[in-house]
Design goal:
The protein is of the alpha+beta class. The protein has a domain of 216 residues: paralog of FGE (formylglycine-generating enzyme) (Alpha-Beta Complex). Strands 3-10-9-8 form a 4-stranded mixed beta sheet, with no helix packed on it. It has 4 helices and 16 strands. The protein is globular. Strand 8 and strand 9 form a beta hairpin.
Length: 311
């Protein structure tokens, strides 16, 4: 059976393609100093989810201990230091079950001959996010992608940190906001885009109003009230929380399944592919499922303090 990758609103069966998409044409620049250190957050009782969102955004209350979280998503430059120091080989660089090739999922504009916009591309990995014809050269400030949850955890362990739980991530993203979006109730107040998302009719028209075709360098949009950049949009971000569609399912998972048995984990924040007409998940309570040992060109991560506690 071919492997599936659960992304955006539905389970999409990706076709296996040997074609190489055109490299990302975004102009590169450094928008913020990534060496400024993490942001420390106080502990709090927080309400997660939203009754106004998608059904899987079920509400629940939890208490978090104090923790700190990276100001930005981990960049290509930061991840490269890890690779050079350790010789680590990512999951996308190994043979993938179901495809029998090394590679990852890549978004490609649909066409009459290839109607699916997700394809498995042989040779896609963190160095070549869209496949062999692409490169991260000159894109050191963009968030690293084509990393699985396993890869992200390996990086975090190397620097003595961890990945956030869903609760930590959502609390940090909301930054005390009670509005539809973390910046207010309008998606683009006074016509100003507040995050790197898709403008136009997904997946065939992208007006590029925000100035970026795909991933933007980290920190190019305003931070939230906690001083955190790109919690919304740019790339989805891994958490260590198992994915469940209801409180009952989550309770069942926590009671019966060990971490090694879990397959699907929660990603948060939406990406440059989220649009008003499809996957309007550029909100803090929004969530999506993703296989822990697979990678795409629109999922990255950030880290938290290793001693942080919370569900």
């Amino acid at each position: 059976m071919r492997r599936t990758c659960i992304i955006l609103l539905s389970v999409v069966l990706m076709s296996c393609s040997s074609e190489t998409p055109a490299p990302n044409q975004n102009a590169t620049k450094s928008c913020v100093d990534v060496s400024s250190g993490p942001v420390s957050l106080d502990g709090a009782e927080v309400t997660l989810g939203s009754p106004q969102g998608y059904p899987e955004e079920f509400t629940r209350v939890t208490t978090l201990a104090p923790f700190d979280i990276d100001r930005t998503e981990v960049t290509n430059a930061q991840f490269e230091k890890f690779i050079l120091a350790t010789g680590y080989v990512t999951t996308a660089e190994t043979r993938q079950p179901g495809f029998n090739k090394a590679g990852g999922a890549v978004f490609t504009l649909p066409s009459p001959t290839h109607p699916n916009w997700w394809r498995f591309v042989e040779g896609a990995n963190w160095r070549h996010p869209e496949g062999p014809g692409s490169s991260i050269n000159g894109r050191e400030s963009e968030p690293v992608v084509q990393v699985s949850l396993i890869d992200a955890q390996a990086y975090a362990a190397w620097i003595g940190r961890a990945l956030p739980t869903e609760a930590q991530w959502e609390y940090a993203a909301k930054a005390g906001s009670q509005t539809l979006y973390v910046w207010g109730n309008e998606r683009a107040p006074e016509g100003e885009e507040q995050a790197n998302t898709w403008q136009g009719a997904f997946p065939v028209q992208n007006t590029l109003t925000d100035g970026f075709e795909a991933r933007a360098p980290v920190g190019c949009f305003p931070p939230n009230a906690f001083g955190l950049y790109d919690m919304i949009g740019n790339v989805w971000e891994w958490t260590t929380s198992p994915y469940a569609r209801s409180a009952q399912e989550l309770e069942s998972i926590n009671a019966a399944i060990t971490e090694t048995d879990l397959k699907d984990y929660t990603i948060k924040g939406g990406s440059f592919l989220c649009a008003q007409n499809y996957c309007a998940r550029y909100r803090a309570p929004a969530r999506q499922s993703q296989e822990r040992d697979f990678s795409t060109n629109h999922i990255g991560f950030r880290t938290v303090s290793q001693t942080a506690e919370g569900p």
